[in-house]
Write a structure and sequence with these properties.
433 residues, globular, Growth Hormone, Chain: A, single chain, mainly alpha
Length: 433
């Protein structure tokens, strides 16, 4: 019995596409890019909620368990140190086994870390708290590393836009998380868990869902498809960039992109970490803290879509300069406003988040521009290690600075530090051109 050609064609159309199919078919690749973005967006909605827990109540939980302000920056430092190690491991795992396995493992590790923090609060164990904060950092690292997965299949002129779509999606969970502080606190108390540990229950569930979404649905793996495309281009001699060593322009992109993200991370983490403690000392409720932090996180992620378009239109370096100026403005406002003024604190933290947004997207776009798919995930993980370490340094020093000087000194110092973005970009350009 002969099978007609239309029937055979239908059977071919119904089969699962192979990686080679995406290499050969631009329309199929376009659909995969769009599907990949949707899956990563969904995971980021959950991941953002997990990320917000540590930002909102981490310093307050440490202050409560340790009984001093000097170590209030320790939680931020620990989970950013943990995120540094996780960024390296997740980056290497993603390079070897794909984004799906690497990102899912990172989010699930963050889930276990959040549960450990809850247990540490219940049994009042500071050592367990510190260890769990390190593991919790895996979730925060993965939440940021996921932005690269959205750019694996993008054209060079659309990379910043795709990265920004991922960043915007984080807003929904990241803004909801701090506003659920009171609700999760009451829920925690109803099951005999300290109120400040409540948000970490939310973080555990959120990170678990983010990891499962990626593990189940991120198929085929975008970085594997991107590697196959690059290999096909190399073989057909249509692209010599993958064959050549890293050029001076590529080195410049890596240096500038890394420096931008490191400096913006230091400034943002330092001021953000001590704002809840500063507010608590001046009579603000935990609900007020949650509102300010949620608006800050909103400013970190929500403008991303516009930022991505601006980065693609006006260039990476122009938006780097904008990041420096915006962060300086945030530091000046935070240092000068009355501590009991909620509206002005919101303005300060909003500017802080916006400046970080400008820096992260412009820096990330430069990194993607300057790397090849053959080493991209591993190098991106290594760069995020530096970002995490810089955040840890900012978080650790912030408590010491405030304890020995003031919140105003911390804020103004951070704002002035951000101005280094401008000479660094100019110096790097002149040295490497």
């Amino acid at each position: 019995m002969e099978v007609s050609e239309p029937v055979l064609q239908q059977a071919v159309d119904r089969r699962r596409p192979t990686v080679q199919d995406y290499v050969d078919n631009p329309e199929l690749l376009r659909k995969l890019r769009r599907r990949t973005l949707m899956i990563v967006v969904l995971s980021q909605i959950f991941g953002g909620a997990g990320l917000a827990a540590g930002i909102t109540v981490g310093a307050l939980l440490a202050q409560d368990m340790l009984g001093t302000d000097s170590y209030a920056g320790v939680p931020t430092a620990l989970f950013t140190i943990g995120s540094a190690a996780a960024a390296l491991l997740v980056g290497r795992l993603s390079q070897r086994l794909g984004r799906r396995v690497g990102l899912a493992a990172g989010f699930l590790s963050g889930c276990f870390g959040a549960l450990g923090i809850v247990l540490a609060a219940v049994i009042d164990s500071v050592p367990l708290l510190f260890v769990s904060l390190l593991v919790y950092g895996a979730g925060t690292a993965t939440n940021l590393l996921a932005r690269y997965a959205g750019a694996d299949l993008a054209k060079p002129t659309e990379r910043a836009r795709d990265i920004s779509v991922i960043m915007v999606s984080t807003t929904f969970g990241a803004v909801a998380g701090p506003n659920l502080v009171d609700t999760m606190g009451r829920f925690a108390e109803s099951i005999d868990v300290p109120a400040l540990a409540g948000p970490f229950l939310l973080a555990a569930a959120a990170f678990a869902l983010a990891g499962l979404v990626l593990f189940i649905w991120l198929r085929p793996d975008p970085i594997k498809v991107a590697f196959a495309i690059a290999e096909a281009q190399r073989k057909s001699a249509t692209s010599t960039r993958e064959e050549s060593s890293v050029s001076a322009a590529d080195k410049r992109g890596v240096i500038v992109g890394t420096t931008v993200m490191v400096l913006t991370q230091i400034v943002m983490v330092a001021i953000m970490t001590m704002t809840p403690v500063h507010m608590k000392h001046h009579g603000h409720s935990i609900g007020d803290v949650g509102l300010v932090i949620s608006i800050h996180v909103c400013a970190m992620f929500l403008p991303s879509l516009v930022t991505g378009l601006l980065v693609d239109k006006f260039g990476r370096k122009a938006m780097t300069y904008a990041a420096g100026v915006t962060l300086l403005s945030a530091g000046i406002v935070a240092a000068s406003v009355p501590a009991d003024s909620m509206p002005l604190l919101i303005v300060a933290l909003g500017l802080l988040g916006l400046g970080w947004n400008f820096g992260l997207i412009s820096g990330t776009a430069q990194i993607v521009d300057a790397t090849t798919v053959a080493t991209r995930a591993k190098l991106q993980g290594a760069i995020d290690v530096l970002i995490a370490i810089s955040g840890a340094s900012g978080g650790m020093m912030s408590g010491v600075i405030v304890d020995h000087a003031s919140y105003a000194a911390l804020s103004l110092g951070g704002g002035l530090l951000s101005l280094l973005l401008i000479p660094v970009v100019l110096w790097t350009r002149n040295r490497l051109q």
